[in-house]
Amino acid sequence: MAQFMDLRAFILRARVLKFYRQALRMTRRAPEHARDELRQTVRVEIEKNRHCDDKQKIKFLISEGLQRLKGLDEMLDMTGNS
C-alpha cells in the first residue's frame, strides 16, 4: 500500500509541475512590462505551498490555480495578447 501512495504522490507532483510550466508559459503572453512581475507572482504562489503534503489541499490548489489561469487567459485574449 505504501508504494501505491508513493505513486499517487508522484502523479500529484507531476500535476503541480505541469501546472507551473503552464503558468510560466502563460506569462509570455502578458505585456512585456508585466511579465517579470507575473512570473514572480507565479513563483511565490508555488513556493508558498511547496511543503504542503495534504493531497486534498494540493488538488484544491491546482484547481484554484487553473481557474486563475483561465481568467488570465481570457483577460489576455481581451487585451489582444495571444
Q: Any overview of this molecule?
A:
- With 82 residues, the protein is mainly α.
- The protein has one domain (19-78).
- Helices cover 82% and strands 0% of the residues.
- Helix 1 packs parallel to helix 3 (55-78).
- The radius of gyration is 15 Å and the shape is elongated.
- The mean pLDDT is 92.
- Give the mean pLDDT: 92
Helix content: over 70%
Q: Characterize the main sheet.
A: none
Shape, please?
Answer: elongated
Number of domains: 1
Number of helices: 3
Task: Provide the structure class.
Answer: mainly alpha
Strand content: under 5%
Sequence of secondary-structure elements:
HHH
Short description, anyone?
Helices cover 82% and strands 0% of the residues. It is mostly helical and 82 residues long.
List keywords for this structure.
82 residues, 3 helices
What is the strand and helix layout of this fold?
Layout: H1 2-27, H2 32-48, H3 55-78
